[in-house]
Design a protein that fits this description.
The chain has helices spanning about 10-25, 55-65, 65-80, 100-110, 115-125, 135-145, 150-155, 160-175, 195-210, and strands spanning about 1-5, 35-40, 180-185, 190. The chain is of the alpha+beta class. β1, α1 (about 10-25) and β2 form a beta-alpha-beta unit. α2 crosses α3 and α4 (about 100-110) runs antiparallel to α5 (about 115-125). It is globular and about 55 Å long.
């Protein structure tokens, strides 16, 4: 069974949603039959390499609120994330373009460590104040996760996986996804937002139960089994 998630690196609710999905999978009876794939979604495709100002000020301008109200919003989000074991430090966050980070995540998929790369980039941005548009930072974090240095260097000096990022975003548009995180199970069941783990595991079970059963034509041909041929 496939679970596809559209999310952005610089999205606090996406990090919370990741933790909720992990908890849901722990409680799902068929966890070993589930394949999780992360898909690219940029909340601000036109973002500069580094945005001026701090998160509270930028949030206040975005929503037309006071700085004090923006700080309260960030504090509430920080407290909610802490309930899932996440440590957010919005006061240190350096906001910037996430396109190259998404390309790195596609490279990690090829090496079987996509989830670890996604986790590392989210933690770097939301908890450690790293600038995730910076190529030196991306290189260091990618190698830390286990990606080959030469492939990382080639990616950052070229446009490898740019098309894959755009394809993810085009698919999101076709599916009507306008906000993240967004979870899709077997391209049949969808859930928007950082849903509680209980709701996600229920969706997994409904999707599993909806899977078509294998229909075997009769009579059967000759086979080999544990008892011989």
């Amino acid at each position: 069974m496939d679970v596809d998630i559209w999310s952005d690196i610089a999205c606090p609710w996406c990090y919370v949603g990741k933790r909720h999905l992990e908890a849901a999978l722990e409680g799902f009876e068929h966890r070993d039959r589930v394949t999780v794939r992360w898909h690219s979604f940029e909340l601000d495709p036109q973002a500069p390499p580094e945005r001026e100002g701090d998160n509270a000020g930028n949030l206040a301008r975005k929503y037309g609120t006071s700085r004090e109200q923006a700080v309260e919003m960030l504090d509430r989000m920080t407290a909610l994330a802490a309930e899932d074991g996440l440590e957010f430090h919005f006061e240190n966050a350096r906001s910037g373009n996430t396109f190259d980070g998404h390309r790195i995540i596609h490279l990690a998929l090829e090496h079987g460590c996509q989830d670890a790369m996604k986790e590392r980039l989210m933690r770097a941005y939301l908890s450690e104040g790293e600038l995730i548009s910076d190529h030196g930072t991306l290189r260091r974090l990618a190698i830390e996760v286990g990606l080959p240095a030469d492939e990382v260097d080639a990616l950052l000096s070229g446009d490898r996986f740019a098309e894959e990022v755009r394809t993810d975003e085009y698919t999101a548009s076709r599916l009507g996804i306008t906000a993240v995180p967004f979870f899709v199970v077997d391209r049949t069941f969808g859930a928007a937002g950082a849903q509680p783990a209980e709701q996600l595991v229920e969706m997994l079970r409904r999707a599993w139960d909806a899977r078509p059963e294998l229909s075997v034509a009769a009579p059967a041909g000759e086979t080999c089994g544990p008892e011989g041929c």
